[in-house]
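README, section 4: Worked example with a bound small molecule

Sections 1 through 3 covered apo chains. Here we extend the same pipeline to holo records, where the ligand is supplied as SMILES alongside the sequence. The molecule in this example is magnesium ion. Nothing else about the input changes; the structure line simply encodes the ligand pose together with the chain.
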Amino acid sequence: MTRIIAVTNQKGGVGKTTTTINLGASLARMHRRVLLVDLDPQANATVGCGVDRVNLSGSSYQLLLDACTLGEAVVVVREGLDLLPAESGLAGAQAELGGEEGNDNYRLRSALGGATGYDYIFIDCPPALNVLTINALVAAHSVLIPVQCEYYALEGLTGLLETVARVRQSANPGLVIEGLLRTMYDGRNSLTREVSEQLSQHFGDKLFRTVIPRNVRLAEAPSYGKPVIDYDEKCLGSLAHLALAGEMMDATSAQDNTPAEQTGGAP
Ligand SMILES: Nc1ncnc2c1ncn2[C@@H]1O[C@H](COP(=O)(O)OP(=O)(O)OP(=O)(O)O)[C@@H](O)[C@H]1O
Ligand SMILES: [Mg+2]
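The generated complex, written as structure tokens:
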């Protein structure tokens, strides 16, 4: 079964795109078939995968507007890893796709209905709780929330969790929290440890055991258009994402063995 995971946090710069690319690439390395969906007008995941934004035969924007098919838009990044790229026109989608109540919130879900043959689909969301993020939440089975362990980390989480609860009630009863992921982690920093402890108290086993350390290789890799495992396989950033992929595969196989009524079923 394909598991669709929205990578989201309306706070900017917390590691959503870094997680999407590198967790996706790590799962592909472990022989899983992965599709990355770039749903951010900034198109950072597209550029970070080395895909030229100019000569696209389709994009997430065109797909949302029914102007192309998924097959036309998807680009192969590396073995097992495909990308649905973003183009800057996506910024206008907010205006073109109406309000939160309309059928426009279901567009991505319908479009991804035809995405067969993937084990995982990761949706890289923009740093906003807008119509694009709502589309991702309606389409997804679960939500992965990257959190930077710093002073304001917890502040936006309430709003995000309320939005997730609202989407669960209105459009997607099966939506669950896949997990919160501590990113840019620096264990020498006492604030990091303090915030990490608070996250652990609030979210318990919803917190991924794996933490992603602050690692310069992770910041460098996108400028070479590569996932970090193709840039520096042995660096701490690569090892952490491979560990995260292992943790996620264990969780997925446990979910697959759990009856649907306990997990809330599929959307
Ligand atoms: N673990 C890390 N170590 C070092 N640098 C990192 C790490 N994770 C992310 N970065 C860098 O921090 C910046 C923000 O990361 P990223 O783009 O993944 O965040 P984002 O949540 O997707 O941002 P936005 O909200 O703008 O979409 C980038 O320059 C990225 O390379
Ligand atoms: Mg991003």
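What to look for in the output: Confidence is low (pLDDT under 50) at residues 263-267. The CA atoms of residues 2 and 144 lie 16 Å apart.

Section 5 describes how to batch many such records.
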